[in-house]
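Lab notes, practical 5.
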Amino acid sequence: MLAAMQPSWQWIDVLALGSQLSPSAMPPPRWALRVVAALALCLGFWWLHRGQRGFPPGPRGLPLVGNLLQLDLKAMPASLAKLSETHGPIFSVSLGQTQVVILAGNDIIKEALVTQAEMFIDRPEIPIFKKSLGNYEGLLLSHGWQWRARRRFTHMMLRNLGMGTKSIEEKIAEEAEFLVRALENKEEKPFDAHSEIINSTANVICSIIFGDRYDWNNKTFVKLVNIINENIELSGNDWSQIFNSFPLLKYFPGPHQRINKNKVVLNAFIQARIEEHDGARIQGDPRDYLDAFIDKRIEDSLNPDTAFSDIALINTMANLFVAGSETTSATLKWGILLMMTHPKVQEQVQEEIDRVVGSNRRPACADRASMPYTNATVHEIQRYANILPMAFPHATTADTKLRGYFLPKGTQVVALIHSALREKSVWETPEQFNPGHFLDIDGNFYNRNDFMAFSAGPRLCLGKNLARMEVFLFLTALLQRFSFQGQSGHPMPDLTPKSGIVWNPHRYEVCAIRR
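Output from the prediction step:
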């Protein structure tokens, strides 16, 4: 690394030979050019680390690229967690010319996102997401009073539409039954459940925001699910880290162009659904979230600063569709994989299902209170799977201090959720899958305050309760009917996550053995 930082005198000599201003001008001495180059190099280091006095320190970087060469861009959360062992719970890294403050561990994350929530509630501009997720005009990456208005409206409407109630539970149970039938058709042969799982979870969010589900063979539906999955992978890979550090790459070919093309397809689909709803809805009597947003848009149409514009409608729907399908499907894929690799846990969950639910009726959310081990297993899947290892970046709303360090307004801050879910001082066996993390000494379910799989503070995931319902109902419905096993004679799949914004397991094959 240090050798790479030394100036190449041969390169400077070439500059010296070509630096004549005119045929008659005398070239400057080579030693002078070497001095200038050395000064420029020093200036680069100073510029890179100039910062405000009291800014959190971090590893020394290189001019232009910062710390990019010191980080494993394909495993960024683990790479940053490793740095925290040296630099502590709050430190900074330079990604290109952008300085980012990293928060590692439960205490510092809660101190920032909960105790000082208003100081850390903003969002920075993230180039890779600017078109793909519609920041500033949706839910996920927007900020200010308009974000608050849309979030408050969305929270209210999801509750009014039955979030956490029997009506939503019935929709989830219906999709779980489709999934069970699909697995029965595999006839206990090895298969990859990726498509079936993501189709099921995507249909749950579709029924809430669009009012209906799609047949799994519907070409439009299959295409949308595939491009969402592709964008999630592309937006979180090593290229995206480089792109965010050097936004001028937007003018060149690369995966970001594919992301933007996919977003155009998704927007066109949503626009078509908006037009369908416009022609069939009854004002003031919303059938689904889309109807409710259209009503709100019309009600607020005379306000030039409305938070419910046409583009806000499209981007909010896109945010809900993407987040509601991808995160839950990733959790369920991990759930099946972990049951397959931990057969004793699977057996204990099945014993509880048999005792509480039996085999003649569907599992229900009301059963959760009588199923502490199953409830603990669902929470442990979410902890261990760690599907969002880094919270979406925050930004400071004003100059502020954290642990004695000075963070200027607009500082980009990343909460390393990965570190909180694997913290050695909090979890008894942080690197192991252990439902006992959520059970007390009497075997009762224990809801831990240190569990932040859905982030923390005002930016806490809106779909937290829905996700918990889905994972519980899907998993119990599957384990009621099947035992999941690996292929005979084959090694168990790797539990290393696949890089991306959402941590999915690598594709694997499983056998669903009927019970």
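Observations recorded by the TA: The longest helix spans residues 310-341. The domain at 127-387+437-514 is CATH 1.10.630.10 (Cytochrome p450).
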